[in-house]
């Protein structure tokens, strides 16, 4: 297995976790492949007439530059209304998480004026977005770092942003993708970073959701699955009845313990929480279809939370 890991990710020594030198070598390999300001910030800027746009932090990655972090809020925020939180781009390489959140804001967020307070952070990890990577510049996965005293700047900034609505949020949907590069790049890198052997897995073909083991909401998850199924196909279980190594509890639904793992979807105490997983590498899905699936998931999640309190 060690040889397999090295073939995929030849940094460091087999079985030895990375130190500062290996992380520096990994960092030096990363290249900017797209532009956060052009792709994301210009879109957010065009929304200022309709929404409150607020900077909630700034990443400082030295020679790599600084990245302002923005959230979009309902213009007429009303403390009497339920709060709905939408996050995207926690893993910067998961494209439809970012652009799905932006599309929802542009096309459908207005539907909820006077019904709910919306708080949307479309691109939590802009450094990762530009380099199409899962980690941040310090080789840390933000989506294992949503806790107090977080080692990830991205996660710490979002924790601070949502602190005022932590106990007020009714729903939080975190928009993600599962890609073929998880198996060819990111899981091998993770194994190598941590000094573990790489054990190949299987990428599911289709959309699925991650529910919270400690706060399961099966009817809520099912409502989201039903809405997305009208847009794109739902991932089937593998031969072991699993998706990415977790038992399938209902069509297209698995469970993780959000808060213990430091996942973004556990950043509030909302009753209704979920993580979407779009599969952009499927021959049966286009990039626009992936964005549309994220929008359908957000709308279904908000609608269910509004209907069921």
From TrEMBL:
Pfam families in UniProt: AstE_AspA_cat
Cofactor: Zn(2+)
InterPro entries documented for this protein: AstE_AspA_cat, Peptidase_M14
Annotated ranges, domain Peptidase M14: 32-309
Keyword Zinc tagged: yes
Keywords linked to the UniProt accession: Hydrolase, Metal-binding, Zinc
Protein name per UniProt: M14 family metallocarboxypeptidase
């Amino acid at each position: 297995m060690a040889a397999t890991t090295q073939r995929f990710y030849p940094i460091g020594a087999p079985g030895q976790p990375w130190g500062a030198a290996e992380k520096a070598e990994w960092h030096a390999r990363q290249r900017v492949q797209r532009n956060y300001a052009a792709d994301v910030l210009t879109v957010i800027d065009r929304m200022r007439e309709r929404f409150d746009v607020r900077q909630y932090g700034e990443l400082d990655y030295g020679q790599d530059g600084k990245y302002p972090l923005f959230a979009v809020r309902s213009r007429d925020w009303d403390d009497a209304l339920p709060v709905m939180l939408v996050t995207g781009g926690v893993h910067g390489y998961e494209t439809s998480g970012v652009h799905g959140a932006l599309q929802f804001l542009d096309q459908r967020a207005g539907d909820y004026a006077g019904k709910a307070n919306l708080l949307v952070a479309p691109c939590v990890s802009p450094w990762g977005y530009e380099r199409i990577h899962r980690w941040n510049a310090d080789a840390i996965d933000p989506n294992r770092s949503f806790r107090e005293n977080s080692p990830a700047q991205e996660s710490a900034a979002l924790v601070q942003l949502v602190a005022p609505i932590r106990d007020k949020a009714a729903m939080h949907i975190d928009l993600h993708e599962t890609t073929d590069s998880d198996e060819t790049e990111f899981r091998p890198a993770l194994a190598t970073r941590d000094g573990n052997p790489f054990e190949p897995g299987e990428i599911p073909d289709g959309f699925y959701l991650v529910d919270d083991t400690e706060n399961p909401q099966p009817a809520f998850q099912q409502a989201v699955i039903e809405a997305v199924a009208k847009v794109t196909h739902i991932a089937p279980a593998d031969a072991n009845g699993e998706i990415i190594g977790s038992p399938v509890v209902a069509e297209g639904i698995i469970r993780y313990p959000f808060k213990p793992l430091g996942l973004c979807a556990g950043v509030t105490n909302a009753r209704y929480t979920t993580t979407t997983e779009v599969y952009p590498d499927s021959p049966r899905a286009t990039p626009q279809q992936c964005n549309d699936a994220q929008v359908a998931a957000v709308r279904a999640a908000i609608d269910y939370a509004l209907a069921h309190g």
